[in-house]
């Protein structure tokens, strides 16, 4: 045992960057290497620094000598001599991690006092005093049956559980690992492959490189990094293939998993967490994925993963194991110690038996027994205490930030290297400024949308079809009382349609929701950059849609105002599209289900139309509902276009005998109507003839209660609503995308 412990002791481990580690990038990417073979580390930064600016071959990245590049790469990132910083191997330690959740009882107790036993029934312990450590250059796997706490432990170590809910300590090189620092130096690969389906493998990795690698790194070196990573992930044959989804044929499951890993290791993180990276893969694909992770670890990273049931070949690649049973540790250590551990526990592993399968089967049998795994848990504590008595950690007397700076000086953690020239003790939170992030996000969104022209075509088609129907239904409206009613109906329907057609934006963010959460959880880009970019790239399409709708309806319906009237009508339609799109985008950040989102949007827009002033004028709305009238998004564009249509004081809409058109008297002959007008003139003392103007446009506006706000103010208020909902969308992302358990 002392030999084994000595092998694991940090005092006898090598430092990433010397000539005792295996390179992450070398040509024969799928060959298995003996664990004790002398090896050479070539981290990402070292290799990137050796890419010849005049060379066009990306394979020069693989042929660069790490032994000659360390000093040059260090001097290129920092101003200090290469020998001034001493490196120290990283050790991630966790002690007594405990996490529990409250479970609501389905049925409350009928009688009796609320005792401590009752409260215990409401609490489920997911992690119970878990301790261990993971070393640089090694892979640690967490094993156990479903519900044992594997993913929970990975989430706890990856800072995906709220600090006030998790008890225990997590340290890196003996220092408490701060949340902000952990986001910079680590990456997390989710169990689900969350990728843009219409991008190719190469494009996906390239966008990740543009997010994760600093602006100071040339475009050529970023491309070289991506090409080398494609080779090392075994994705060369699929590099130009789209990711695909249910409706589009794409790459295989194993290739998707390797792409998911690639986008999170593009910046060469110090710590890599993975939640069941082999889930759903065949044995060969699973082995290839773990082989890639082994090279990542041996390049100077700490790799920690959960895995359900590894094969014999995968077991040969793992350095440390933790077996969990219902939140308790039942074994931790090297796979080579499994036989000794269970033999001393009086359950020896048969000679030809798969050690992992035997251990998992035994744990399951004990879980189903009356005593459970209590004895195994207690025995493991005694066995681990003996190990810890012999193991000691030594950090050469340097701080954690100094160790990270030393690692960066060798090319590790490229995204954090840009700031080390000024302050070795500080690390860049984001690799790029916000405007670079906005450009990359916008470029990716546009590219993804352009490859789905059917979605763009459907929205244009919906707007055009609606416009054509309205244009043919309300063709050349006259200035009669019926024409006035028809105009009011046209404006109400047109304004509400602009908002309803924005409902298609709901699935846009919901499809990207978990991709966004994954990317922002570890500082790929700022949330504000995402909101601003999505807002800006939506404007051209909104302008096109507004122009199509306005041109289709304005002249066909015969609306007033000429060129200036058309311009205002177009701007109002555009402002409505902007406000509606912003409102729907905000709701998509609040509601996480597509069908529920559509239901909420349709219901709220119906309420907006109801309180807009079309069905019932403002003066007739009850006081206890008047507040909703002013919150209605439809109110302001509706009132704006009404004023644009009826503001001309010289235009008459009701003349003489037309006052009888909307009454039973309208059915009488004109001669009778003229006689009535003469009688009315005598009573009123005013001469009212058949051509006398009785109602102007201003009178119609007063009848509709449109007198408070000018048409231009209605336009600006509509635009302001759009900005307001974009700000709310940002706060929903800020609050609702923490991606942490409570």
Automatic annotation (TrEMBL):
It is found in: Membrane. GO terms for cellular component: membrane. Signal peptide: none annotated. The chain crosses the membrane at residues 456-477, 489-510, 531-560, 566-587, 594-616, 715-736. SMART domains: AAA. Residues 92-351 form the ABC transporter domain. Keywords: ATP-binding, Membrane, Nucleotide-binding, Transmembrane, Transmembrane helix, Transport. It is a multi-pass membrane protein. Pfam families: ABC2_membrane (PF01061), ABC2_membrane_7 (PF19055), ABC_tran (PF00005). One of its GO terms (molecular function) is ABC-type transporter activity. Its main location: membrane. Gene3D superfamilies: P-loop containing nucleotide triphosphate hydrolases. Belongs to the ABC transporter superfamily. ABCG family. Eye pigment precursor importer (TC 3.A.1.204) subfamily. This is ABC transporter domain-containing protein. It comes from Brassica campestris.
């Amino acid at each position: 045992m002392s030999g084994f412990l000595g092998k694991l002791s940090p005092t006898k481990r090598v430092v990433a960057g010397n000539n005792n580690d295996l390179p992450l990038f070398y040509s024969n990417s799928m060959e298995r290497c003996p664990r004790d073979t002398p090896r050479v580390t070539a981290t990402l930064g070292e290799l990137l620094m050796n890419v010849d600016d005049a060379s066009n071959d990306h394979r020069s990245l693989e042929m660069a000598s790490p032994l000659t590049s360390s000093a040059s790469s260090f001097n290129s990132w920092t101003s200090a001599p290469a020998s001034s910083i001493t490196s120290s191997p990283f050790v991630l330690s966790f002690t007594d991690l405990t996490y529990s959740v409250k479970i609501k009882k389905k049925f409350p107790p009928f009688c009796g006092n609320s005792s401590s036993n009752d409260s215990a029934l409401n609490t489920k312990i997911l992690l119970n005093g878990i301790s261990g450590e993971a070393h640089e250059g090694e892979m640690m796997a967490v094993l156990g049956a479903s519900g044992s706490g594997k993913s929970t432990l990975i989430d706890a170590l990856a800072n995906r559980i709220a600090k006030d809910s998790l008890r225990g300590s997590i340290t890196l090189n003996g220092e408490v690992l701060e949340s902000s620092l952990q986001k910079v130096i680590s990456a997390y690969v989710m169990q689900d492959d969350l990728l843009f389906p219409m991008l190719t493998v190469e494009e996906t990795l390239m966008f990740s490189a543009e997010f994760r690698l600093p602006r100071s790194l040339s475009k050529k070196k970023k491309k070289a990094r991506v090409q080398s990573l494609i080779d090392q992930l075994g994705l060369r044959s699929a590099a130009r293939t789209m990711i695909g989804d249910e409706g589009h044929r794409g790459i295989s499951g194993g290739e998707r998993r390797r792409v998911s890993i690639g986008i999170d290791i593009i910046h060469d993180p110090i710590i890599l967490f993975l939640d069941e990276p082999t889930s759903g893969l065949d044995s060969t694909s699973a082995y290839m994925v773990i082989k890639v992770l082994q090279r990542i670890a041996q390049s100077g990273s700490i790799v920690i993963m959960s895995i359900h049931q590894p094969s014999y070949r995968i077991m040969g690649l793992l350095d440390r194991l933790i077996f969990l049973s219902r939140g308790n540790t039942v074994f931790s250590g090297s796979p080579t110690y499994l036989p000794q551990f269970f033999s001393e526990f009086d359950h020896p592993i048969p000679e030809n038996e798969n050690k992992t399968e035997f251990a998992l089967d035994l744990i399951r049998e004990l879980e189903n027994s009356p005593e459970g795994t209590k004895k195994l848990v207690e025995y493991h504590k005694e066995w681990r205490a003996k190990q810890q008595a012999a193991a000691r950690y030594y950090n050469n007397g340097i701080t954690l930030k100094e160790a990270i700076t030393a690692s960066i000086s060798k090319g590790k953690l490229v995204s954090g290297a840009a700031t080390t020239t000024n302050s070795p003790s500080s690390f860049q939170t984001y690799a790029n400024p916000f405007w670079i992030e906005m450009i990359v996000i916008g470029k990716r969104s546009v590219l993804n949308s352009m490859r789905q022209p059917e979605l763009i075509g459907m929205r244009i088609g919906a707007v055009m079809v609606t416009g054509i129907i309205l244009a043919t239904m309300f063709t050349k409206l006259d200035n009669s009382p019926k024409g006035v009613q028809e105009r009011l109906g046209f404006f109400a329907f047109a304004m509400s349609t602009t908002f309803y057609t924005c409902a298609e934006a709901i699935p846009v963010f919901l499809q990207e929701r978990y991709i966004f959460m994954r990317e922002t959880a570890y500082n790929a880009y700022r949330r504000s950059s995402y909101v601003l970019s999505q807002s800006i790239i939506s404007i051209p399409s909104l302008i096109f849609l507004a122009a199509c709708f306005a041109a289709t309806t304005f002249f066909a319906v015969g609306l007033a105002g000429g060129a200036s009237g058309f311009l205002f009508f177009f701007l109002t339609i555009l402002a409505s599209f902007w406000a509606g799109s912003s409102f729907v985008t905000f709701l998509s950040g609040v509601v996480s289900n597509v069908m529920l989102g559509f239901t909420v949007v349709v219901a709220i827009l119906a309420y907006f139309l109801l309180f807009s002033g079309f069905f019932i004028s403002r003066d007739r709305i009850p006081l206890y509902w008047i507040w909703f009238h002013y919150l209605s998004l439809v109110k302001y564009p509706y009132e704006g276009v009404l004023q644009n249509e009826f503001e001309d004081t010289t235009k008459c809409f009701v003349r003489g005998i037309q006052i009888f058109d909307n009454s039973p008297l309208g059915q009488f002959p004109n001669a009778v109507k003229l006689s009535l007008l003469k009688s009315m003139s005598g009573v009123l003392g005013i001469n009212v003839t058949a051509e006398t103007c009785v109602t102007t446009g201003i009178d119609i506006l007063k009848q509709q209660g449109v007198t408070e706000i000018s048409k231009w103010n209605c336009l600006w208020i509509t635009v302001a609503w759009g900005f307001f909902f974009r700000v709310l969308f940002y706060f929903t992302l800020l609050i609702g995308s923490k991606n942490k358990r409570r």
